[in-house]
Amino acid sequence: MDVEAVLIETKYKHTIKSSSATLINQKYIFTTCHILLELLQKNIELLHQLPEGQLCLYTNEPIIFHVLWKNNSNSDTFVVKRARLFALFKSRILSQFYNNDFRDWSANPEVSRGKNVNLSEAISVFLILVIEDVKASAVNLEEVVSRLFKKVSSLRVAKCDQIVSVSTPFGSREFFNSISEGIVSASLMESGLFLSDCSSAPGCEGGLVYLSNCSQRQKFPVGIIISSFNWWRKDWVGFTLIVDISSLLVDIIQANKAIKTIIQNREVPKVLDLFENSLVQIKCGSNWGTGIVLCKKKGIIITNSHVVISEFKIYIFWKSHQTIGHLVYKSPKNSAFDWAVIRVQSSFDNWFPLNSAKFYIGTYSKGDQVYAAGYSLLSNNTFPKELTITKGIINACNTSMIQTSCSVYPGFSGGGIFTSNGMLLGLTVCNIKLIDIGETYSKFNMALPINLLREPLCEYLKTEDSNVLLRFAENFQAESRNWNILNGKL
Question: How confident is the model over 458-469, as pLDDT tens digits?
Answer without folding.
Answer: 999 999 998 888
